[in-house]
Amino acid sequence: MLTQTNGPEHLRWVGALTLGYERSVLKRKLLSLFAGSSITKDFGPRSFEGDYGKHLGGAKLFLRLKFDSSTGMAPGM
User: Fold this and answer.
1) Is residue 12 in a domain?
2) How far is Cα 57 from Cα 33, in angstroms, rounded to an integer?
3) pLDDT at 2
4) Furthest CA-CA distance within the chain
5) Domains in the chain, number
6) What is the pLDDT averaged over residues 37-52?
7) By three-state DSSP, how is residue 3 classified?
8) Quick check: is 75 in a domain?
9) What domain range includes position 21?
10) For 35, phi and psi rounded to 5 degrees?
C-alpha cells in the first residue's frame, strides 16, 4: 500500500505481513461452512506513529459459506 505524507512528492511505503487459518466446520450436499482467523502486522515509517500508534496491525475472525453449484457436471470441468 502506498501512502502520502506531506504531499505527493513525499510518498512512503507501508508493508504488511498476514498469517491466517481456515477450517471446514460443516459440510452438506450443496453447502460448506468454514471458520477462520487472521492476524496482520503492518510496517510503516516512524512518522506514522503519531496518527496510528506504535503497533500497527489487526486481527479478524470470519465465517465463509461456499455454495457448490457444480453438481451434474463431469469431473474435471
Assistant:
1) yes
2) 27
3) 52
4) 58
5) 1
6) 87
7) strand
8) no
9) 2-67
10) -120, 145
The alpha carbon torsion through 22, 27, 31, 33 (nearest 10 deg) reads: -30
CA separation for the pair 18, 5 (Å, rounded)? 24
Mean residue pLDDT of the chain comes to 82
**Chain-centre distance for alpha carbon 64:** 13
Looking at residue 77, its pLDDT comes to 44
Q: 13-43: per-residue pLDDT in tens?
A: 789 999 999 999 999 989 999 999 999 999 8
Length of the chain: 77
How would you classify the pairing of strands 57-67 and 11-13? unpaired
* 20 belongs to a structural domain: yes
CA distance linking residue 42 with residue 13, whole number of Å: 11
